Each structure stands twice: as structure tokens, then as C-alpha cells.
Amino acid sequence: MVQQIGLLASATTLLMLLMAVEAQLSHLNVDLDFIEGNRMNTPARVKRSLAKYGIVDEKLNSRLNSASSAAIELFSAYVDIEYVGEIAIGTPPQKFSVDFDTGSSDIWVPSSRCGSSCSTHNRFDGLKSSTYTDMGGKTWQLSYGDGSSVRGYTARDAVHLGNVTQPQQLIGLVSDETPEFASDKFLDGIFGLAFPPLAYTGIKASIVEDMHMAGSIPSPIVSFHLGHNRDGGKGEILFGDINQNHFEGELKYVPVTLKKYWQVDMTGVEVDGVNVLDAAMPAIVDTGTTLIIVPSAVSNAIHKAIPGAKYDPMYGWRIPCSFADSSSTESINIKLGDQDFPLFLKDLVRAKMSQSSGDKNGLCYSGVAEANTPLAILGDTFLRSYYSVYDFGNARVGLARTRP
User: Fold this and answer.
1) Average pLDDT score over the chain
2) What sections of 27-175 are H helices per DSSP?
């Protein structure tokens, strides 16, 4: 762990120490870029997110089907956000843009065997890597509840993360993918960071655990900083360590209740001091999901506390875009285990857009969505407010308020 910085005698000394800390961490981290994704309306995004967990909300599906023929999509900037970083595979390294996803466990990228279904994505060619090992034609397939899927074969090769290399890592190489994946022009593949029981490629341990066992990183942890749109949206993923420059106060740790996803107990959602969650429910902390997804009653209570929030069957909840720039300090409180994690209501505005380019009333999508679901999903809307640490060794998630 990076040492806590104590009181220093001068500003010059402090600056020198901070520079040393950054230099110490630089070989372990991967910068995350802030990307504008497909402009899905909120219900469509919810359907996509739930499909990842095999959950089907028939009421939501019927709403989408009935409205789709008359729908006019909002044109707005940065509605759907994904944080993409660069990795490399093979010797010499072949580069790929991936989504670092704590909601899945496989590392996969398109292969040279993938034809037009992989669109313009970069493709890995094992014949051009001196460290490539074929797995004898072993195949794998990942399918979501909405019909999207990828399939291919497995192999082993060196995976390069910053200046750290994990040799002979098991990876999935895609030979075919459905349009839902192919249409993302910024993203080549997925870098899964959940537990092995969720994997389809046959990994026995997370790459984070393997890197720690090999002595490449000091701890079996991975840490995320996801920047706000107002700050340029840049982020950072750090393997094996914690970057205290990105948060304030102390990390609060919540135990994982099922070592598959990063699943914790959500014990309450407090709005105006009142708990609106009927009973404790599982919550999955997921860097690969844009939204916070909760039951309808919880979503309704949250949005009633936001001035000017409006619900539409097609678009879901929308919030005045101007609210994101307000001086409001109103918040809701999400309780995970016995810990409190407040969120400013103004941070639930998914993105800012100009009135001239979007809805005439200046409405933006909300970062909180509702669904008939047995679990909650805490995606990037939540994680932009909290630095998050995923501790494989102790099966826990650490959260601390992001530094303003």
C-alpha cells in the first residue's frame, strides 16, 4: 500500500513526495479514457445491463416493444459512458482497447479468425506472437439474456498491463460476435475482473491473483478511479496497489457475500432520512455497467426528491440538465453492510447537454433506473463518486469518497 502522507515541513517537500508516489505507481496503472457510447435510452440500457446477469423484466420488454415504433431518440452528448483502457497481448505486443469489467471474469479480444462480424475491431494474430500457445482447439461461448453473444477459442499468451507482463495468461479469442458487441467502435474486448466461478474460458484464478502469486504486484487487489464528466471523465485502474491521490478519508470495506460477482448486501437506501428499501437485497458493484439499477419503488422515491425530474415510459427518468451544475448538497444514502455511502442527487445526472442539441426542456437521462430485479446493480453512476478497491485476498470491496 502507498504510505499515508503525514504533515510535511514545506510545500516543496510535499510536491517531491507526491511526485515520488506517482512514479512508484506509474508502472502498475492503466489510464482509462472517457468515451461517448451508443445513445441508448434508459430502459434499453437497463435491459442490456440486466441481460448480463440473466435477468429478464417482461414489463420492461413490453414497454420497449410498444414504444419503439414511435420513438424519437434524444440527441445528447455523452449519454452512455464507458471507461476504456489499453492493454497489449503477445510478443511483440498487439494493442487492444478494453472495458475493465468487475461484472465478468473472462479476458477476450477478437482474433484474426473473426470475419466481418467483428466489424473494425483490432484482431489478435497468434501467428505473429512468439509466446503464443494454442489450447488444442478448446472453444468457449458467452451469451447474455438479450441474445448478444461472443464465441471463439482459448489460448495462452503474455498480457501486458502498463509495464507489468503476465506470461501465459489464459484468454478468449473471438471468432464471431453479435452486433451488440461489434457496433461499439471504441471497444475491442472485455477485461473481466470478477471471480473465476463466473468465467467461461476456464480460468482457475483471476489474473490479479496470478500476478500477485508471481510477485508482479504487491497485493491481490485492483483499484478504480472513474472521473466525472465535468472533470474530463478520465480514470485510472491500478493493479496491486491503491492510489491515495484519488480519494479522501479512509476506505470503508464491505464483505463480499458471494464470490462470483463482487456482490455485497445493500441494507438500505435512505431518501430524506427515510429508508425506502423494503428489505436487504444483494447488490453487485460493477464497473462495466453505466447505471444504478434498483427496484421501482426505490427509484421513484429517489426521483421524487429531485426538482423537475420526469418519468417517461420510453426514456425512463430524466432530470433537468442544469441540476448537475447546481449548488445543491441534497443526497441519498446507500447502505452497504453496516456502512453508509452518500450520493449527491446532482451527481445522478448522467451527462450534461445543451438545450439546443437535446430535449427542448433541457432534460438529461438519470443515472438511476428501475427494473423488476432481485438484485441491485451499482454501476458507474455510483462509482464516479467513490474510489473502489476489489480485494481478492480478503473477498471485500473498499470504497472511499473520490477527491473533488
Assistant:
1) 82
2) 42-51, 58-67
Domain boundaries in the chain? 226-401
Active-site option among 157, 210, 241, 286: 286
Question: How far is Cα 158 from Cα 86, in angstroms, rounded to an integer?
Answer: 14
Residues with pLDDT less than 50, the chain: 1-27, 37-39, 62-80, 354-358
Query: Can 101 be counted among the known catalytic residues?
Result: yes
CB of 122 closer than 8 Å to CB of 135 = no
Catalytic residue, from 57, 101, 176, 359: name it. 101
> Is residue 33 annotated as part of the catalytic site, yes or no?
no
- 166 close to 203: Cβ distance less than 8 angstroms: no
Model confidence pLDDT, tens digit, residues 47-80: 667 777 777 555 555 444 433 322 212 222 233 4
Lookup result for grid cell 498480457 = 159
Please answer whether residues 334 and 377 qualify as being in contact, where contact means their C-beta atoms are separated by less than 8 angstroms. Answer: no
**At the topology level of CATH, where does 226-401 sit?**
Cathepsin D, subunit A; domain 1 (2.40.70)
| Grid-cell match 414497454, residue found | 63
Show the DSSP H helices in 139-256 as ranges.
179-182, 207-213
Question: Each residue of 340-374: pLDDT tens digit?
Answer: 999 999 999 986 554 444 455 688 889 999 988 89
Judge contact between 208 and 218, C-beta under 8 A.
Answer: no
Q: Whole-model pTM?
A: 0.82
The answer to whether 139 touches 147, Cβ cutoff 8 Å, is: no
The DSSP letter of residue 217 is S
Give ∠ CA 283-289-291 in degrees, rounded to 5: 75
